[in-house]
Amino acid sequence: MDRMIYTAMxxxxxSFDQQAxxxxxxxxxxxxxxxxxxxxxxxxxxxxxxxHTRTLPLAATPGADMTAGPVSATGRAxxxxxxxxxxxxxxxxxxxxxxxxxxxxxxDRNGMLNIGGLAVIGEAGPILVPLDSQVSVxxxxxxxxxxxxxxxDSISEVARVKLVTADRGQLERSDDGLFRAPADADGQxxxxxxxxxxxxxxxxxxxxxxxxxxxxxxxxxxxxxYDMNMKAISSAEENEKAANSLLAMN
Length: 250
Prior knowledge:
With 250 residues, the protein is α+β, with helices and mostly antiparallel strands. The chain is built from 2 helices and 19 strands.
């Protein structure tokens, strides 16, 4: 009886964890540049003497779906869509360098370029532009401005965003939703170098690659799997009570 209870209990827990992944994907169906997190279930044998007949389910997140999302024109100078395998570098909350395909760049009250509150990194660190200036962006990531009150011919280049190129498998998804280069043999995550050939398109945004319909189907399937495991636990409890009643009668 314990085999049924613990197997079903672990299955319910893993289904609950998988549901969190699906829910997060669905919540980001409109987030620019979002990469859907993958999830999978597998049976894992229990190791040890006397346990050769037992297996437990295990939910795993093998990585992210790197398929590109749809690109739509916005006409806004600080909306970026990245070409090919290009990524933009941002400063994560822990101060480390991370990468994203999100391209809705904003300018805060200090003139710092940011994406979702994270500073956009240039060749010399976070990028600052003069407040109230007219900003334009080149395909290589060069940031040019015309300061407030200046003529159009006074345009000047102030920085260049750091664009890197990463093929499939060269970046790993972190818990904060950003991507980083895998750790080296010493456990250090070294930043990727700037790629002179990486390009972006200004005035366009890449959307999320999450398919809302597929995500909803996955959510329903995961919920049904959870309910099935909970029903198995209830059945085991009922069987245990019936067995105890028979023993009490004897």
